[in-house]
From TrEMBL:
Coiled coil: none annotated. Residues 40-184, 505-651 form the Putative metallopeptidase domain. Pfam families: DUF2201, DUF2201_N. Residues 229-245 have a biased composition (Basic and acidic residues). It comes from Kineococcus radiotolerans (strain ATCC BAA-149 / DSM 14245 / SRS30216). InterPro entries: Put_metallopeptidase_dom (IPR025154), VWA-like_dom (IPR018698), vWFA_dom_sf (IPR036465). SUPFAM superfamilies: vWA-like. It comes from the Bacteria. Residues 1-30, 220-275, 484-567 are annotated as: Disordered. This is VWA-like domain-containing protein.
């Protein structure tokens, strides 16, 4: 869909530039660029003082200003795009933390590692969050102060452990609500865009796509006020039937708000919004006779966000709070007030700095405890936000759940000003019902630290908004949990972005891209924070995923074709090597390097052969050897036989896929964790040796019947007694046709044969030791050791 053109101001309002994150942004003024540039330079210098071993990497990064990025992000060529208004509101210590965070992504190859996972691009946000956890854990260990945005740490991911890798954290996040499939079919009607700003230029064109072939010359489109959804209804705007539509919304002159439907096909059309509407939620209904489809449509209102979004007890004076406007513009005349619960102004505003058109920085004197409102006034426009002061503040992860979410699932709660201990309790309250508490909604708290706890949600919740209350002694902290509704994230389907739609998704759900239009990716258009969203959730393509809307291309040249000074892949590798040497040297001389960076540096300079890669290499070699064998065979006569009457001529035999057997130890000494790795590695072999599949032989003291499988769903593990892998090897050797590769997966606590089985001595025999090194493995077997407790790749951070 084409980007919107610059819009005229609505009646009675002076023209103003488009806010950040939208096409047509006005460049920041020179004074703001100068101030932000000085703050960046000071922050980088401070970052090299805090972590001097990262200096080479820090000074390789090229800083690029842009008002299209909400905060700052880094791309695959080490270009850090920053919003000047955001940087100008930070202290030097916070800017240093931002530098160190962003440079951690390319140093740890987070973009390449996300590509290696072969996950859909739609999941780049989850990967970014996992990578942030790994980076932030080491920055916290070094005492680095992050910017006042929602920073993620491993303890906020249910199931994570100290030292968990980004890959492990990502898998744990996928197991949560964000990795669930939608509970039902996708929307019957899709609008692009489905949200307009309150001051967008009119008329505005909107594309529509329907699941069913509903559009023809008799189809109508109308706009209605959005009804409040019932508690037991589906997701807000899911295309369901809400009953009587009521009267269509009309303009002041009585004409319909929407123009006639322009049909482009049975599932695709467009219409025009020609009437300025008050901000709010509406429904668009497409109808043909008794058939219809419905979805939500939003007109936004100016909003205000605060950084930080609360002040703790005993906060320093003056306390600096940044006001971030969305859909509003600040200027030198903007006024800021702090109001108490009764709406009375408090004399606590010590100073207001006009940073940019979207940022105001306010210094507050000591503010009394309570829940206050911050009000910003610019001309006739007023925006407000809530500022809790000295109130225990609770953050919930995830804060939104899809309708029909699975249970049990684990919620992570993080609090300030309230100690979480064994006496703490948590309740889920439904304000719309009596009694308010949802009975048996959660299990017991698992305390992870004095400020973080995990709690299982045991029963599914209906669509609506709930209060989550954490209580310790006489104090309580409160958070809001949203189920369904517009604020809920769209659950990612496996394959979405890779196969265009998941296996449960109708192809009609995925609209075709307009001619000449890029597919939307993370960062395109306005940022939808979704689940627990915050400005800091998208660190750019340098942290993984496709190129963002604000990023330059990957050519490394400017508009005139000259080198833009960014970092290519070869130079990036040299920087990693230099940085790794500096990390280890600093650790030897000063000993003040976080453990995560030391592990990273050691494995950059002294790479270990990963057991997964070694297994893959052996499988590839066997496959290549078998495929390369071409010989004559009498199984099929040669086509040249007619030239030699009375003589049978052999034909050339074509190569075939390798035949592979996996002998799996299922004895009592094999733990569940080992068996899970057996399943995972068997799946790798199955994928590698397609054609005749893999024959799996389960073995404890005796061998089961061989079973050929072509997918992991066909594998059956039986056993649980003693251990004698000789029986499994003998069963594999006796099988016909003969196997080319026999992989034995075991903990190694078994007797071994002294020589290859005589029934098939020419096969390649490999033993995969699942619990570390063991003695007694014969030399004629290729041994691959899985380190004890493996499951995490030690090179990952």
């Amino acid at each position: 869909m084409p980007r919107p053109v610059p819009r005229p101001a609505p009646p009675g309002r002076a023209p103003r530039p488009t806010p950040p994150g939208r096409a047509g942004d006005a460049p920041p003024d020179e004074d703001l660029l100068r101030r932000a540039g000085l703050r960046l330079a000071a922050g980088r210098a401070r970052a090299t003082e805090l972590m001097p071993y990262l200096a080479d990497a820090l000074y390789a990064v090229k800083a690029v200003p842009s008002t299209r990025v909400p905060t700052l992000a880094i791309d695959t060529r080490w270009r850090m795009t920053y919003h000047p208004g955001f940087i100008a509101t930070l202290t030097v210590e916070q800017v240093a933390g931002a530098w160190l965070h962003e440079v951690g992504h390319p140093l740890r190859r987070h973009a390449e590692r996300f590509r290696d996972l072969a996950e859909p691009a739609a999941r780049a946000g989850l990967w970014n969050r996992a990578a942030d956890c790994a980076v932030n854990a080491d920055l916290r260990a070094a005492g680095v102060q992050p910017p006042p945005v929602g920073a993620w740490f491993p303890e906020q991911v249910p199931g994570a452990e100290e030292g968990s890798t980004a890959e492990q954290l990502y898998r744990l996040l996928l197991q949560g609500p964000a990795g669930q499939r939608p509970a039902g079919p996708g929307p019957g009607l899709l609008l692009l865009p489905d949200t307009l700003r309150h001051d967008d230029a009119l008329p505005a064109d909107v594309l529509c796509f329907t699941r069913e072939p509903l559009l023809d010359a008799s189809t109508t489109v109308t706009l209605h006020h959005h009804p409040r959804p019932a508690r037991d209804s589906g997701r807000d705007g899911d295309g369901g039937d809400h009953g009587d539509d009521g009267e269509p919304v009309t303009g002041e002159d009585g004409t319909p708000a929407l123009g006639a439907l322009r049909v482009r096909g049975p599932r695709q059309g467009s219409f025009t919004l020609g009437t300025r509407l008050p901000p709010g939620r509406y429904d668009v209904v497409v109808a043909r006779g008794e058939e219809r489809a419905r979805t939500g449509f939003t007109i936004t209102t100016p909003t205000l966000r605060l950084r930080p979004d609360h002040l703790v007890r005993g906060h320093g004076s003056p306390a600096r709070v940044v006001l971030v406007g969305d859909g509003t513009r600040f200027d030198a005349t903007s006024r800021v007030e702090v109001l108490d619960a009764a709406g009375r102004p408090l004399d606590v505003v010590a100073g207001v700095e006009h940073v940019s058109a979207t940022h105001l920085a306010v210094d507050l004197a000591e503010v009394p405890e309570g829940t206050h409102r911050v009000r910003a006034t610019t001309g006739p426009e007023v925006v407000q936000a809530v500022l809790p002061v000295g109130r225990p503040f609770l953050t919930l992860h995830p804060a939104t759940l899809p309708a029909g979410h699975r249970t049990p699932l684990t919620l992570a709660v993080t609090t300030d000003d309230l100690v979480v201990d064994a006496t703490s309790t948590l309740a889920v309250l439904d304000p719309a019902r009596e009694p308010a508490e949802v009975v048996a909604a959660t299990g017991p708290l698992e305390v992870r630290s004095p400020s973080v706890a995990h709690v299982p949600l045991l029963r599914p919740l209906d669509v609506g908004r709930y209060a989550v209350v954490l209580t310790t002694g006489d104090e309580q902290a409160l958070a809001t949990l949203t189920v369904g509704g517009r604020g809920a994230p769209a659950p990612a389907s496996p394959g979405l972005g890779a196969d265009a739609a998941g296996e449960d998704t109708d192809p009609a759900d995925v609209p075709p891209a307009a001619a000449g239009e890029d597919a939307p990716g993370p960062g395109d258009g306005d940022k939808d924070h979704g689940d627990d969203g915050d400005d800091g959730d998208d660190c750019g393509s340098g942290a993984g995923g496709p190129r963002r809307a604000w990023e330059q291309d990957e050519s490394g040249t400017d508009a005139e074709g000259r080198d833009d000074g960014s970092v290519d892949a070869g130079r990036a590798e040299l920087i990693r090597q230099q940085t790794a040497r500096a990390v280890l040297e600093h650790a030897r001389s000063c000993g003040s390097v976080p453990a995560g960076w030391q592990r990273w540096a050691t494995l950059v300079l002294e790479p270990e052969v990963d057991w997964r890669r070694e297994l893959d290499s052996v499988t590839r070699r066997v496959s290549a050897n078998v495929a390369g064998v071409r010989d004559y065979s009498y199984a099929r006569p040669s086509r040249r036989a007619a030239s030699f009457p009375g003589v049978v001529m052999p034909a050339m035999r074509q190569p075939r896929p390798p035949r592979v057997a996996a002998v799996v130890d299922t004895s009592g000494s094999i733990s569940d964790a080992m068996l899970s790795r057996v399943h995972a590695e068997t799946a790798v072999v199955v994928r590698r040796c397609r054609g005749e599949g893999v024959t799996v032989i389960a073995c404890d003291a005796a061998a089961s019947a061989p079973r050929t499988v072509r997918s992991m769903s066909e594998v059956r593990m039986v056993g649980g007694g003693g251990t004698d892998m000789r029986e499994g090897l003998r069963a594999a050797a006796r099988a016909r046709p003969r196997f080319d590769l026999v992989i034995t997966m075991t903990d190694g606590d078994t007797p071994w044969p002294a020589a290859p089985p005589p029934e098939n001595p020419d096969a390649r025999y490999v033993v995969l030791l699942l619990d570390g090194e063991r003695e007694g493995v014969p030399a004629w077997m290729h041994t691959i050791v899985v380190p004890a407790g493996a499951g995490r790749d030690p090179r990952r951070g």
